[in-house]
TrEMBL record:
Residues 156-308 form the DDE Tnp4 domain. It comes from the Eukaryota. It is found in: Nucleus. InterPro entries: HARBI1-like (IPR045249), HARBI1_dom (IPR027806). This is DDE Tnp4 domain-containing protein. Its cofactor is a divalent metal cation. Its main location: nucleus. Keywords: Hydrolase, Metal-binding, Nuclease, Nucleus. It comes from Parnassius mnemosyne. Belongs to the HARBI1 family. Pfam families: DDE_Tnp_4 (PF13359). GO terms for cellular component: nucleus.
Length: 363
């Protein structure tokens, strides 16, 4: 009996070694230059040129190859891109013929690449809110040219990214749609570029609270002698710098026309979420990130970095189907009307009334 068990154990070890050798052999045969361009973009969402630029940025940030048969940095990046893009659990990623590897190896690659994409200088390079008047004026002008609404520096909203049940502080992540999530706040410009993102709050946190704690709010409130607006839905409190819809506005009244235009411009953030999640499907609410909240938040930031790289490079991503759009809408948590202090609300109403009057004069 003991001899039989030893033979079985030896056979299993040999089988594992053979699988490892086969994976290594297939990886060594991988030559990304042989992958057709359309297939490359379809698998990894980046063009070959943009992939090379990404490698220049983050390969120095990856752990050095420890062994002769260790995973090449470029293959680690391809593995992570494939996971972000497919949104399927990492075991299926590891079985793809363009980079076969064990699930544990896929997980390690994903962790390393995600950490690299979250390096502070990488985030600052690719995701930055306009910091001076000239930068703000460029964004304002683009919004005005497209929609005729002045002084807009961004649109803001939150979107839920599903995660598995956390082992700690589970109640912070359980949202009103009864699943666990990260409530991710995003600000975008008229080109669908993400200028600010916060993926540190659980799904139980309201949109208005995330905005109240956001450094961008303090930044906008500190601007002197300059009119700037973010556009948000009624889940945000009306402020001098936050333009929200007018409640119960009559159609074809000045307020009704303002609401129509405000909503039309604000659809920019909805399109941004659609493009972001259509390209990086691991973020779809119908799926789950099988990671702790901190790691899930880093994956969200990594996808936002890659989103901006693709937008700037003019690379189109796969669109969500109508069924996927409907699934996203069903899984997103509806906003709750934000409470507001009287003095700040009055200042916001004055600013919004001035904007409505300006729009009426320019009709």
């Amino acid at each position: 009996m003991a001899t039989r068990q030893l033979l079985i154990a030896a056979a299993l070890r040999e089988e594992r070694l053979e699988r490892r050798r086969n994976r290594r052999r297939l990886r060594n045969q991988l030559n990304i230059s042989n992958i057709p361009d359309l297939e490359f973009v379809g698998n990894y969402r980046l063009s070959r040129e943009l992939f090379e630029e990404l490698c220049q940025d983050i390969v120095p940030l990856l752990p050095p190859k420890g062994r002769r048969h260790g995973i090449e940095p470029t293959l680690k990046i391809l593995t992570a891109l494939n996971f972000y893009a497919r949104g399927s659990y990492q075991g299926s990623v590891g079985q793809n013929m363009d980079g076969p590897m064990a699930q544990q190896t896929v997980s390690r690659c994903l962790q390393e690449v995600t950490t690299a994409l979250n390096a502070p200088h990488i985030l600052r390079k690719h995701i930055r809110f306009p910091q001076n008047r000239n930068e703000r004026n460029l964004i304002k002008q683009k919004f005005y040219d497209k929609y005729g609404l002045p002084a807009v520096v961004g649109c803001i909203d939150c979107s839920h990214v599903a995660i598995v049940r956390p082992s700690e502080h589970e109640e912070r992540y359980f949202n009103r749609k009864h699943f666990h999530s990260i409530n991710t706040q995003v600000i975008c410009d008229s080109d669908l570029l993400i200028t600010n993102v916060d993926a540190s709050y659980g799904g139980a946190t309201h949109d208005a609270y995330i905005w109240r704690e956001c450094e961008i709010r303090n930044h906008l409130e500190g601007l002197q002698d300059e009119t700037v607006y973010l556009l948000g839905d009624s889940g945000y409190a009306l402020r001098e710098h936050m333009m929200t819809p007018v409640d119960n506005a009559v159609e074809n009244s000045p307020e009704g026309r303002y609401n129509y235009l405000q909503k039309r411009v604000r659809c920019t953030i909805e399109r941004t979420f659609g493009v972001l999640k259509g390209r990086w499907r691991c973020l779809l609410a119908a799926r789950e990130l099988h990671y702790c909240p901190e790691t899930a938040g880093k994956i969200i930031l990594a996808c936002c970095v890659l989103h901006n790289m693709c937008i700037r490079a003019g690379i189109e991503g796969p669109e969500l189907t109508e069924e996927e759009h409907q699934s996203e809408r069903t899984r997103q948590v509806p906003f709750e009307t934000a409470a507001s202090s009287t003095q700040a609300l009055q200042a916001g109403r004055r600013a919004r009334n001035s904007l409505i009057q300006m729009l009426e004069r320019n009709r």
